[in-house]
């Protein structure tokens, strides 16, 4: 096995000390002749600097830490692309960890990111990790919470989120405009984004002189629970003698499961029931599924920019949702 070239080999080739090589590689002061000899030795020996050693001397690595709750959501793919593009442009490595929605694991992963002295942290974790994230920010590591707003953030703690109430309002207005009147909602639980989207749905219905009954909203925290949730909504509507003519899903990661639950029951979209969900994905156009989109790529870029060029004061950035109308709500029939 070939021996890895070391900084000592470069120093010997250039005829200088290892301290001089380190200084040149890190942009320190050196004469032009010395720098030329060092870089020539680096090139000829194909030397790769040790990022770990650099991090030790700098007191921080050059990696940008990202803690994701659930990579099954289409939202996170665009988010990661945006983060990676900014990191690459700033000579940073992206260190990604997926928590699988396990809060204890989330806390551990944020702690480990801190222990690895990442350049900064972008996190989509539960509120119960905020004390650890806040601790990192207070100790000089820029942190960005994505998908919700940080409460009373200290310097160094920022947030990038969506207008979730606006997303819910867009859902309600589109379904109403498509002539739907008996609407059920599948949401994924108590996350601020889910609560605010349902609140937006209610607001829009109220403004149109309608209401969204409590029993018209059901929670499914996992894909396995979705079939039961859809069945419950259909049964409740039938009991009220107002069969559902629309179903809204406020969590993009549950889209496939909700769509499957409807079609498995022989329900035709949109003839029997309109279907509207969050977050666009690769096969949505082929199936004609209408969606409320959030600009995940732009959100990822902005989050990473807050890490690589951190502002002095906390920043909270809110992006606007958009409707992509296809045909799953009966749009063509209403043209």
Brief overview:
The chain is α/β, with parallel strands linked by helices and 335 residues long.
Give a quick set of tags describing it.
Rossmann fold; elongated; 6-stranded mixed beta sheet; alpha/beta; 13 helices; 335 residues; 6-stranded parallel beta sheet; single chain
Overview of the structural elements:
One of its GO terms (molecular function) is DNA-binding transcription factor activity. Keywords: DNA-binding, Transcription, Transcription regulation. It contains 13 helices and twelve strands. It has 335 residues and is α/β, with parallel strands linked by helices. A six-stranded parallel sheet has the order 2-1-3-4-5-11, with helices on both faces. Strands 7-6-8-9-10-12 form a six-stranded mixed sheet, sandwiched between helices. Helix 7 (130-138) links the parallel strand 3 (120-123) and strand 4. The longest helix is centred in the last third of the chain and has 17 residues, at 223-239.
How is the biggest beta sheet arranged? 6 strands, parallel
Strands ordered across the widest β-sheet: 2-1-3-4-5-11
Domain count: the total is 3
For the record, what CATH class of the largest domain applies? Alpha Beta
β-strand percent reads 15-25%
Q: Tell me the structural class.
A: alpha/beta
How many β-strand runs? Answer: 12
Number of helices: 13
Query: What is the level-2 CATH architecture name of the largest domain?
Result: 3-Layer(aba) Sandwich
Q: Helix content range of the residues, please?
A: 40-55%
Report mean pLDDT, rounded to a whole number. 89
Radius of gyration: 26 Å
Oligomer: single chain
Q: Could you state the order of secondary-structure elements as H and E?
A: HHHHEHEHEHEEHEHEHEHEHEHEE
